[in-house]
Write a structure and sequence with these properties.
By secondary structure, the chain is mostly helical. It has eleven helices and four strands, in the order αββαααααββααααα. It folds into two domains: about 1-65, no CATH class; about 130-335, Arp2/3 complex 21 kDa subunit ARPC3 (Orthogonal Bundle). The chain has helices at about 1-15, 40-50, 60-65, 65-110, 130-155, 160-175, 195-200, 200-220, 230-250, 255-285, 290-325, and strands at about 25, 30-35, 180, 185-190. Helix 6 (about 160-175) packs antiparallel against helix 7 (about 195-200), helix 7 crosses helix 9 and helix 9 (about 230-250) runs antiparallel to helix 10.
Length: about 350
């Protein structure tokens, strides 16, 4: 038994007693390592033949025990992951490109379609040349008076110019709120000239309204250069002087300043559109009655101008209330002599 056991032990495990160096073989591509453990396979097969037992080791198990086999497996797994990542990146890029193409096509269609235009003021080229020149002739004297007033008041109060700048910015922003008029195919908008006239006077309001209208004509396509004179007369002259007059008359009657401010904003807005209607009716009544054309244009503006006038009255009242509570010193420079 001892001899047999010794012989069997020598036959089975002799390969582990001979430590031969690892060998690397390859075909110029992948390289493989032969581990000494792989020499145990013949002995395991002989044991299986003699004793009818299962092999002690399988070739796959022995290969898995090799450090190089583990390294090789990790390398193959890394390649698979890299390939999957590349496929995912390619699919992601294709998705982004397709979505971008769809968005670009939709944007191109939207740009190509003509959008509905809702221009404010009297548009460029709408008035005949004779009427355009006439309204320029009416507007220029008021602008000149406003510039003279600016020079005089700036000499009296050197810090008056910043107030004019603030009021001008307010007029520009307030008059850039278009409200489409469905019955006339144009736009209405608040003007802010009533509030401006209370703070800096009607003459200077004509100046700031002229600047606002010029900027809107050049950069926002509202109004135009040929119709600038007519727009100045409507928004600057009519709106400013009517609003200022309404405030002064109401105050002289002893009525509250809040009511005076509301009426200034309300009537300045309505006066602006009444003057615009007069300008349009005078230019386009043709052989028809001027009054009939004027009534038709006024009726077309009614759906928007009634609520807009009320809105501007509330806006003027709220602005003056804010100034009285936060910056009452500004009212000492106001055109109404601080009696706000």
């Amino acid at each position: 038994m001892n001899a047999i056991g010794t012989k069997r032990e020598n036959e089975t495990f002799a390969p582990f007693e001979h430590r031969i160096p690892d060998a690397r073989i390859g075909d110029g591509g992948d390289r493989f390592q032969i581990s000494p453990l792989s020499h145990a396979l013949p002995a395991a097969e002989r044991l299986h033949g003699k004793f009818g037992t299962e092999p002690l080791f399988s070739f796959g198990e022995i290969g898995a025990l090799s450090p190089f086999s583990v390294e090789r497996s990790e390398e193959l797994q890394g390649r698979k992951m890299s390939s999957a990542r590349r496929d995912r990146d390619v699919r992601g890029a294709q998705y982004i490109i397709s979505r971008t193409a769809v968005v670009a096509a939709a944007a191109g269609i939207l740009v190509a379609l003509p959008p509905p235009a809702f221009a404010m003021h009297i548009s460029e080229g709408l008035l005949p040349a004779s009427w355009a020149l006439l309204w320029y002739a009416v507007a220029i004297p008021f602008v000149a008076m406003g510039l003279r007033d600016l020079k005089r008041r700036n000499g009296e109060l050197p810090y008056f110019k910043p107030l004019i700048g603030l009021v001008g910015a307010a007029v520009f922003l307030i008059s850039c709120m278009p409200v489409p008029v469905p019955t006339a195919g144009t736009c209405s908008h608040p003007a802010g000239t009533g509030l401006a006239a209370i703070l800096i006077g009607p003459g200077l309001t004509v100046v700031v309204a002229s600047i606002a209208l010029t900027l809107q004509a050049l950069f926002l396509a509202h109004g135009g250069l040929t119709t600038l004179g007519a727009n100045i007369v409507a928004m600057g002259v009519a709106g400013a002087y009517v609003g200022y007059g309404a405030y002064r008359i109401t105050r002289r009657l002893g009525l509250p300043w809040a009511l005076a401010a509301f009426l200034a904003g309300l009537l300045s807005d309505w006066a602006t559109y009444a003057m615009t209607s007069v300008e349009l009716a005078a230019a386009f009544h043709g052989g028809e009655s001027f009054s009939a054309m004027l009534a038709l244009i006024l009726i077309a503006f009614v759906p928007t101008q009634l609520p807009l006038g009320i809105f501007e009255g509330i806006l003027c009242l709220g602005a003056l209330k804010f100034i009285r509570g936060r910056k009452p010193e500004l009212l000492r420079m106001a055109a109404v002599g601080g009696k706000v």
